[in-house]
Amino acid sequence: MIPSYDELTLIEGLGMPHAWDVLDRDRGTVSLLSSDTVRSAATLVSEGDVIPLNLSLGEIDPPLFGRAPYKHTVLPVSRNSNEDKLDEFNPQSTSQWDGLRHVRAKQHGFFGGVTEIAADDTETLSIEHWARSGIVGRGVLLDVSRYLASTGRPLDPFAGDEILAESLDATAQAQGVELHPGDIACVRTGWVDAYRKLDTRGRRAPELSQRFSGLRADAATARFFWDNHVAALCADNPAVEVAPGDKSVGYLHWRLLPTLGLAVAELLDLDTLAERCATLRRWEFLFVAVPLPVPGGVSSPSNAVAIL
């Protein structure tokens, strides 16, 4: 029996509950996925539509948060064959997963209370643990952007507006969908769609990394996802949570990654999926993602698809 959010043990000095004694240390919430959840999710495939959820490499140009752009070179290794070479490739410059090594909760450490990871330790909290099983299960799209627009309160993805847990619940109710244990929740803010409409000058504005709408960083948001026992949380904005946010509210990454072990994906392309879901009037699908098996990896390209 998984304890509720309010039943979890608090981290002394941080005031946030942790799931260190509830979930597998190296897999976090991905351990909620099982053969049963995969079999059940596979029954959702009825249309045969395969929709990639990944931005094209280099589409976010320049990359956000000052990250370096990748360099791609095609090498002619013989008269009849070529090979690729990628340099300075930051997996977090595009649609990506945040692994359990990505964020620590100050002196309290990474997930599981891990405070130190040796340079030659490629196992502890490595994203390769997720790659070994894949992240496969029932995906649920919470199209917050479409829902709020339908209520006459459209969300501006660049305004730095907060999406409350109540809005997530209202979106699910409006769509007639419920989250089940082991689900992959996909939250659409409309950020990718808005980004694609920007001109070159707009894409180079520093404000893109400093202000964007997203989930409120409070305990209610963490409680919503934990008590629904989701295996992963995906969003189409740069950091899942709102920016710049409110220091008095806290930091959602701390509430999710190092404390709850929740797998988080950012900058997913949910626009085509949203249109297809709206047409079919159903917001559940088979979600498949296979992170890169990088030993000791901190992050990975999302490598995700939705199958309807």
Question: Your description of this structure?
Answer:
The protein has 308 residues and is α/β, with parallel strands linked by helices. The chain has a single domain (5-307), classed as Putative cyclase (Glucose Oxidase, domain 1). The chain is 23% helix and 20% strand. The chain has ten helices and 15 strands. The protein has a nine-stranded mixed β-sheet. A hairpin with a 2-residue loop joins strand 4 and strand 5 (81-87). The two termini are 31 Å apart.
Quick overview:
By secondary structure, the protein is of the alpha/beta class. The chain has helices at 35-42, 128-133, 144-150, 165-175, 191-196, 200-203, 207-210, 219-227, 252-256, 271-280, and strands at 9-10, 17-18, 50-52, 71-78, 81-87, 96-98, 135-142, 162-163, 184-187, 214-215, 232-235, 263-266, 284-289, 299-301, 304-307. Strands 3-15-13-7-9-11-12-6-14 form a nine-stranded mixed beta sheet. Strands 1-2 form a two-stranded antiparallel ribbon.
